[in-house]
Input
Amino acid sequence: MDRLNLLRFVPFRINRLGAEFSQALAADYARFGIDIPEWRVLATLGMHDGPRSAAYVVRCTRTHKSRISRAVGHLVDLGLVERQEDEADRREIFLALSPKGRAVYGELVPLLLAREERLLAILSDAERRSLGALLEKLEASLDLMRCAGET
Output
């Protein structure tokens, strides 16, 4: 019988690293009363000037729609996100950062980029470029959204 060394299994390793990176970043946005799914909503909306649908946030973040829905509800309660009806299709709801949400996003981005820098400091510039290229290749192979401009 073949045995699987979980600690050498690439999907597990990527997932474990992702969880650790998320937890490291969570300390920064917890100060604003938000958690990981809520940050993902803010970050996705913050990439754009205009509103985006909840379905777009789900596709972009690969987070289950029920978690995004709860996150959006909390962000609306906090005054960070606004819901907007689509004029052409009233069933479709679009989301946008409120002015308060944009301010929180503006405060968080430099903190998170600095933390990312500290987490990646062990890698040389060439290793960072290689890591980026490898991640892009894996994302493309899984047909994951990679571009903020994709709808």
Summary: The beta strands are 52-53, 81-85, 93-97. Residues 99-120 form the longest helix (22 residues).
